[in-house]
Amino acid sequence: MPSDVIDYRIVGDDMQGVIVTLDPGEAVFAEAGAMMYMEDGIEVATTLDPNAQGGSLFGKLVGAGKRVLTGESFFITLFGNGAAQRRDVAFAAPTPGKIFVADLKQWGGEVIAQKDAFLCAARGTDIGIAFTKRIGAGFFGGEGFILQRLRGDGLAFFAASGTLIERELRAGEVLKVDTGCLVAMQASVDYDIEMVKGIKTMLFAGEGLFYVKLTGPGRVILQTLPFSRLAERVIAHAPAMQRQGSASGVLGGILGDRG
User: Fold this and answer.
1) CATH, residue 56
2) The model's pTM
3) Domain residues for 46?
4) Alpha helices in the chain (DSSP H)
5) How many domains does the chain have?
């Protein structure tokens, strides 16, 4: 089905959200927990398939199972405007960073995205899974070999961590990227995983054992700070922070007793 033609505006700088304005009868769907606020008149429904026009329950379950494989929730939440006037519904990115908007018509009707980047999309957009060409990419690529495939002719919104970088690759041009820094790419871009060369480089460079090899032509969207990398830094410093906190607590207790 054709996608709804929705209006939107991005708010914020480094912790962005998107406000979608729906005409009467229009709808947008999002992953569970993404909604920030909605105006009176917006109706909410949880469904296995936001674009279903009948069909069997088994078919819907298969589609939902595919979403689970991509790291998203089993159900999709549909937000429709049941009022007689235009109404807003807003969604917030789950991590600090930017929201990337893809007009699927300008992307050739298809976008391949990392498994947890999807935020919301106009009703009529189809979400599926895309496998890389080599199974080894899934076991060693860091982000998994299952990527999201979005098809349609409307708007889709993706959440990226850090700052966005867009590259346009020429035919045959190769770009090697950290496995967590890829956000989205055109379907025309070839995606593969390559092992870092050299034992010393693997062990001491701190860049991981594998990287993504992207070969043009096509557009590529990258993020500067994958949330997984930020989480690793926080976890690595957690023991030291706990020790400092304990020491501060003891010192505070001693000084408090003296007061």
Assistant:
1) 3.60.160.10
2) 0.75
3) 7-239
4) 57-69, 135-140, 199-204, 227-258
5) 1
